[in-house]
Amino acid sequence: MIGLLVTMAGIVLVQDDVRPTATELRRAHQMLAGAWTIISATDDGNEVGADLLRRKLVKDGRVVIKNRTVTHENPETGETLVNAFTINPARLPREINLNSIDDRTMPGIFKFDGDELVICFADGRNVERPTDFESKPGSSRIVLHLKSAADKAVIIGDAVEDDPDEAKAPPASSVASTRAAGARRATEAELNRDRDLLGGRWRFLSIQDDGENLGPELIRTKMAEDGVVRVGSRGISVVSPGDEQKRLWAYRIDPAASPKEIDLITQFDTILKGVYTFEGDRLMVCVGKSEDDPRPLDFDAPAGSRRVLYTLKTIASTTPTVATRPAAAPRPEPRPEPKSSPEQEARRREQKIHDMIVGSWSTTDSKGGLVTVFRSDGTFTSTRTLARKRLFEPPTKSFNGAWTFGQSNLTARVTGTTDRNMLGYSFIGRVQSIGDETMVVADVTAGLRTFRKLR
Fold first, then answer.
1. Residue 298 near residue 286 (C-beta atoms within 8 A)
2. 143-168 mean pLDDT
3. What are phi and psi of 387, to 5 degrees?
4. How many C-beta neighbours within 10 Å does residue 87 have?
5. Parallel, antiparallel, or unpaired for β 260-265 and 116-122?
């Protein structure tokens, strides 16, 4: 148990045969991000008391998941422990691996159960990934039940400030329909009627995600502020509870199909095929999780279906009627946006690269493997796993310190380490290129280094 809680994070080994889409990955990180309180823990069949947990292992039973790292504080030493983690939400059950600082791999699984996050993993002695969420005597498994704390979540993903009425719908030629050949197309009156029915504010009642049922508290604190989504004539928008920014998806409907069809275009320009129906004051929408998934034919999302089912309830409008609404003031002519100076553009570019650097990266050289976590607060931690074990030296070394990025240079200075010869050492490299998967850095001592981002 102590080994787990000391290293409540790590590197996930995502299996190559099933990879999550960008939308799945962003949404899973969005759901995980934030502060959590451990409400129960079972280690090898033995329940760990809440008082013992808080006094000996995790201060206040609290862990924080942020920027693909997990942080908690040891209540006895006051030490703050931070490690990276990555996930594969496309597998069922959803997979997570935890790696300790001594390079032990802890394969595990996780799920959302109502308003709880449940994690089950092997403690390092057992290298087999669990297939269920049970910790029996002799199983070498640990099961944690966590509940979202009051803090706002940290949302991962691109913000969109557009209005849902101005969203760009996918072109009709790019949308695959399940209608039979020769079936009639929706009339303009049918389209306008359903757009009017869809338009307005809705509150999530439930979400069934590939067999997982998300509770209203998780939806409210992780996905949509107050659990509310707004639908315009062309787009769907929600306000993220963590950063209070608006996020937008466009949509297209075909009310003539049976069941009625809807297609969502994400911020990644992927099109998800779905169906929708109205039941009284409720709206049900069932969509596939990736472009390759077929359009659903019913309103269910059991485990293994690769579907998400949303159930929403309309929110009564408080807008005054036309008879009492005051006349709208004439809109002023929009002012042209001032052009940015070259210096402003350069600062924006550097800030964008800085934000892309934040996260967990790995590289391999003649000395062995190196995993580095760059955090948004300007600090970093690194773990070096030596390729060849040396006499009287541990197989791994750890480093921490501060990092900066400016004028295309990435600088990291070591202020704490298990290798005293590296204390005060500064690494300076020029970032040649960076993307979602790789970063190439020119190191004056070792030439070009390629770093791969961990997921």
1. yes
2. 57
3. -70, -35
4. 22
5. unpaired
